[in-house]
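Tutorial handout. Part one gives the primary structure; part two gives the three-dimensional structure as tokens.
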Amino acid sequence: MVARWLMNLRVFLVWLLGFALAMVILILWHELVMVFVINTLRLGENIIPLIHILYYLLAGLLWFVFFLISMEYLKRSARKGMLLRGSLLVIGTQLLIIGFGQAGLTLYGYFPADQLGIILIAAAGLLGAGMLFFARHIGKVQHRIWLNQQN
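Part two.
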């Protein structure tokens, strides 16, 4: 009973961290889309409110679907004893998306290209890529252990 409760708590905490990262992604990519629309496409002021609405509508639906899928994936991973791998995959992917958004805003000049900005981009990208690498490695090790238990 307690073990199941702790498992559900760990799944919830990973989901909560993923939710916080999703809010960062939503805001960061909104700014990237707006900078792209204004600076590159040079659309007029009349179309900008429509783009705001369409962005939040589409991004909100996309993240809703992502959370439904990731919550089920995390629950299934926890039942199989692979919550660490599932957590690393979900959070690592989100960190990579954040790193790409930061890099895009830095290239547009929206964020300063100073030492702190470059460190933040590198940290998000490397941490996300490292999490995905370790998730793949952990998955292979856990799969071998599972195969050995089956024999």
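Part three, for discussion. The longest helix spans residues 2-41. The mean pLDDT is 88.
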